[in-house]
Amino acid sequence: MHKKLYFQFAGSCFLLLFVFLGYLVKFYPTWLVSFDETLTRIIRSGYPFWTPFFLWVTKFANPTTIILLFLAVLAVLVINKYYAEALWLSIGTIGIAGLFNPLIKLVFLRERPTLEHLVTESSFSFPSGHSTGSMVFYGTLLFLVPVFFKQPFWQWGLRILLGLLIGCIGISRIYVGVHFPSDVLGGFCVGLSWLLLTYPYYLQKRFVWRFTRKQL
After folding, report:
1. Which CATH architecture does the domain made up of 2-25+32-210 adopt?
2. Mind telling me which residue stretches traverse the membrane in this protein (predicted)?
3. 43: closest CA among 179, 157, 151, 137?
């Protein structure tokens, strides 16, 4: 019960942070200029040395990549009868990353940075779709690592790798010039709020389904 409250409190905090950021983007965008310019300057200070790396890592959150990985993981989960895990992953990836994020962009209508774009993007900027998608998809996998690996060494190793991948994807969107840091932060907040608010319900559903299956 206490863990559920902790997750819900943390998820609510990230949701409120997203609402606050969205309010600034919509009505007081100049308030974010210093924050965005400072972080962008720091992240792009390694240009062009880091260009090959960030062009590579940003592809891990491209829609095609996420779709293919999602289908592969979903197939493994369904075949092994991890239905609660499959449902949680599907709702997040399809509903939040695939539908909600593109639609919420139309509320803010934020134009992308005027920096040179190293990749082609045509949609609006806030919140970052790659950041939301990576947080939702790879973040869900981070929580589901114990389903696939029982040894603590592999569990923590994979969690660290997934966490680093999510962070690098967010940084890559700033480096390649298609997002402001506040876009990335907004996308991460959307993904984190979803994960933390729904994780306790996934655990509850998993317990019920596995208990029912054992009874049958």
Report:
1. Up-down Bundle (1.20)
2. 5-25, 60-79, 86-108, 128-149, 156-178, 184-203
3. 179
